[in-house]
Amino acid sequence: MQEACALAVVKWPEEGVPASPRAWLVGVARHKALDRARREARRAGKEAAAASDPTAAAPPAADAPPATDLAWPAAAPPAPELAAADELGLIFMCCHPALDPAARIALTLRSVCGLDTRSIAAAFLLPEPTVAQRIVRAKRKIRQAGIRMRVPAGDELPGRLAVVYRVVYVVYTQGHMASAGPDLVRAGLCDQAIGLARALTGLLPGEPEAAGLLALLLLTDARRDARTDAAGDLVLLADQDRTRWDQAKIVEGERLLEAALRAGRPGPYLLHAAIAACHSCAASAEQTDWREIAALYGELIRYEPSPVVAANRAVAVAMSEGPAAGLAILDALGGSARITGWPQFHIARAELLTRVGRAADAARAYEAALRLPMSAPERAFIERRRAALGYRA
Questions:
Q1: How far is 123 from 170, CA to CA, in rounded Å?
Q2: Are 32 and 131 within one domain?
Q3: Domain termination residue (choose one: 204, 220, 239)
Q4: Residue 58 counted as domain residue
């Protein structure tokens, strides 16, 4: 990467910055790494030839251009598929089993995927200093233990898959619902995650969880354009114009999900995808099968026993059995320090409190959400909901 950056400093001022600088850098770095590997592979033979015939291995002319410059023109960035495959290789490399899983994820998200520490902390409902320390400790361990960072061989992939899946999923969630900033959606992160998930399915054909992850991202991302109105304001799922949903993504996602389910090996991403499919298959919000969604979340908790999954199940229970039932589940989760740092928890409570007629409590729940970081459209949405109640917490 250092060599690629050095080349960019020389070429970009002369030839212009490429359309995708990140992809250009990753592609050039990949080719330089391949060139070096080829040279090292031929080194022993050349040294033997030089020892027997000093003229056999004459050095190249001083003005001969590097092989990489010929193989990778600076004006032609790599195709998105190649860039995603290269990035996926770096993710597998960074998810080294010698590191603690939590540290692996944080380090990879920061060093390879480009997420800032604040976004990573928001994704895991952790304080930002905690995440920063995880990254520092992971780097220190790599340096002190002399851990060799390389793209793993095929038989080494299964031991890293769970962490790689989580990395790709977190990249998407931070694009789907930005934890800060002026926009609700960070489209670049969504596209980046979908590209990585596609590369995973190409690397692991027939692997249900890889297909489930891609299906989940496609089915969720199909709603992207309908999630905000012309002014950029947030639109709830129930109020979205479903004609604006991307039908091509829905069809592809459902096809991937059906094929993966036939394998008979369910996992967390297949269950997430099945939940997303319940929304995409419903002709209207009223026809959504919330009982099925609640049951799927109940099964998902076996794989991901987290307060976030439990909170999502509570919303599904509220939609199928009534707001009081869902509110009871949310109130039981309120003792978790992590869940109270998640704006969506307070928003869900406020919505259910409103439905059971507890407007003053709902206003206080909205106030709790507003004290947490979030995107500008989400903050504006909450302020409108709170104002509609006519209460100040």
A1: 7
A2: no
A3: 204
A4: no
Give the separation between CA 347 and CA 331, rounded to whole angstroms. Answer: 13
How many Å apart are CA 120 and CA 131, to the nearest integer?
7
Q: Is there a single domain that holds both residue 85 and residue 40?
A: no
Evaluate the CA torsion angle 266, 267, 273, 274 in order and state its sign: positive
My answer on whether 381 and 332 are in the same domain is yes
Rounded Cα distance between 220 and 121, Å, is 22
Give the contacts of 208 (CB within 8 A, at least 6 positions apart): 260, 261, 263, 265, 266, 267, 270
Q: Give the pair of three-digit tokens for residue 193.
A: 């995650």
Domains contained in the chain, number: 3
Helices 268-281, 247-261: crossing angle, 10 deg rounding: 140
Are residues 37 and 88 both part of a single domain?
no
Question: 1 and 85, same structural domain?
Answer: no
Q: How many helices (H) and strands (E) does the chain have?
A: 18, 0
Give the separation between CA 138 and CA 305, rounded to whole angstroms.
Answer: 25
Write the single-letter amino acid at 235. Answer: V
Q: Is residue 257 part of a domain?
A: no
- Assign residue 341 the CATH number of its domain: 1.25.40.10
Give a yes or no: residue 185 inside a domain: yes
Could you say which of 167, 184, 204 is where a domain stops? 204
Q: Is the pLDDT of residue 382 over 60?
A: yes
* pLDDT tens, position by position, 27-56: 777 667 756 655 555 555 555 555 554 444
Who wins on pLDDT, 25 or 217? Answer: 217
220: buried, middle or exposed (CB in 10 Å: 19+, 13-18, 0-12)?
Answer: buried
- The single-letter DSSP state of residue 206 is T
C-alpha of 84 from chain center: 13
In a domain, 117, yes or no: yes
Q: Residue-wise over 135-161: b if at least 16 C-beta within 10 A, else e? A: beebeebbeeeeeeeeebeeeebeebb
Q: What is the pLDDT of residues 134-158, one digit of tens each?
A: 999 999 999 998 988 888 887 888 8
Opening angle at CA 374, ends 369 and 375, nearest 5: 135
Same domain, residue pair 18 and 102: no
What pTM did the predictor assign?
0.80
Residue 192: is it exposed, middle or buried by C-beta count within 10 angstroms (0-12/13-18/19+)? buried
Alpha carbon distance 72, 32 (integer Å):
9
Expressed as residue numbers, the domain containing 133 is: 81-146+156-204
Q: In angstroms, rounded to a whole number, what is the distance separating the alpha carbons of residues 8 and 267? A: 43
